[in-house]
Amino acid sequence: MHTSTARRGSGVRRGAGLLLGAALAATALAAPQATAASNGPTLPAPTGSHQVGTVSLHLVDPARRDPWVAARQHRELMVSVRYPARDADRYPLTPQMLPGEAAGFDALNNFTGVPKGRVDWSATRSHAHEGAPVDRRGGPLPVVLYEPGTLDPRSLGTTLADDLASHGFVVVTIDHTYDASAVQFPGGRVERSVLPSEFAATKGEPAAITALLEKVMTVNIADTRFVLDQVDALAAGHDPDAEHRPLPRGLVGALDPHRVGMFGQSSGGMAALETMHEDPRITAGADLDGVLAYEQGDHTPGNPFPVATAGLKRPFLLMGMDGDNHHTVPSWGQLWNNSRGWHRDLTLRGGQHASFTDAESLLPQIARQLGLPASTVRENVGSTDPGQAVAAESAYLTAFFDQWLRGGSGDGLFDGPSPRFPVIDYVR
Fold first, then answer.
1. Which burial class, exposed, middle or buried, applies to 168 when counting CB atoms under 10 A from its CB (0-12, 13-18, 19+)?
2. CA angle in degrees (0–180, nearest 5) for 215-262-97
3. Any keyword rRNA processing (predicted)?
4. What is the pLDDT of residues 305-359, one digit of tens each?
């Protein structure tokens, strides 16, 4: 979810208690009657040695009714699988967002100062080739799950997902239907978020808001555990796609279900560590600026998640915007003090909440295209150079998962401050 100081979500700021306020504010704004920008912004190229392939999967959980829409007898999800590929140039590059996803995203866009109806969010291409064969020359591949923030689509984490895949990981990105701004299913059906109406129904009552946020997290963790089941199915040689559409050559059986990590931004980071607490299949987790408490402010004590009070024995990484670390965010401090396993805390100097999404790269380009003031970029993604921010985030995530899923050294990045990435503060 995107946000400002007054309208919070996973864009600029987000106290957990205000995550949904942006959704309500967004629905009250009319889109300007202007022509959308025709030349889409670009995403940074992956830094690894592998080409990247991708396939989307339609997953149906027959054991659950949809918790948001009673008429849906089964819970349906869309995920994307990113993976190291070979001979990929013969396969088309996929868009970052499909048209239905892009329209829903624009309708709920509340990036501060970015007008609706002016950006063609479907015009940006990813660096992943649709359906390319899997490069299995290194044997079974470690798996990393990615979860976006509340209201955000899985595609808003494309840069980091593509980069990890280029370094030899299989990355499964998850859309939570009726939470994400819009989810497009095979055949073109689009399901939009119900959270704006759910938030409006709370009438601003604190207890009702907390209950809604707890439901969001409960549903998302259940979705994630179901996706883990489908990772197991793929690893065992099964095709979990509901329509049984052809899978890329080499994907079935390529995943290693015993080496699984997870990361997410905002509420996705919360879900990554809480799922890790609840499900032993997650070996290592990274939280990108997600507070682990149902509180309205990042720095407000109280209402911690179970993972914060219980702590973790397995490795985790905290990456915060400027000013957020385990000394200033009470729920992070609780997790830090209660955990007996390996853990590190990093801060992106000059970063904002949305710096850990594709907004870091996209918004400076959009601002130039639309002639928006420099303050628009600063309010959404901070003052850090976008290229340096993305390079640092990619390097630290790759090093973290390499260390804990492949037995690597961590590239020395977790031993102390690195002169290679001066925008990252190492928090002791």
1. buried
2. 80
3. no
4. 999 999 999 999 999 999 999 999 999 999 999 999 999 999 999 999 999 999 9
High-pLDDT (> 70) share of the chain, %: 90
Residue 167 buriedness (CB in 10 A; 0-12 / 13-18 / 19+):
buried
Separation of alpha carbons 131 and 90, rounded Å: 10
Residues 81, 174: contact at Cβ < 8 Å? no
Domain of 162: which CATH number? Answer: 3.40.50.1820
Tell me which residue range forms the domain holding 310: 16-427
The type of residue at 355 is S
In a domain, 129, yes or no: yes
Distances (CA, A) of 424 to 53, 149, 227, 387, 389: 30, 22, 32, 13, 8
Task: Give a yes or no: residue 2 inside a domain.
Answer: no
Total number of domains in the chain: 1
The CA distance from 382 to 395, in Å, is: 20
Cβ atoms 110, 136 nearer than 8 A: no
Sign for the CA dihedral angle at 293, 294, 300, 304 comes to: negative
Burial 321-355 (b: 16+ CB within 10 A, else e): bbebbbeebbbbbbbbeebeebbbbbbbbbbbbbb
Per the listing, tokens 């993976």 go with 83
**9 is a domain residue:** no
Place of tokens 């499964």: 172
Tens digit of each residue's pLDDT (9 = 90 or more) over 136-192: 998 999 999 999 999 999 999 999 999 999 999 999 999 999 999 999 999 999 999
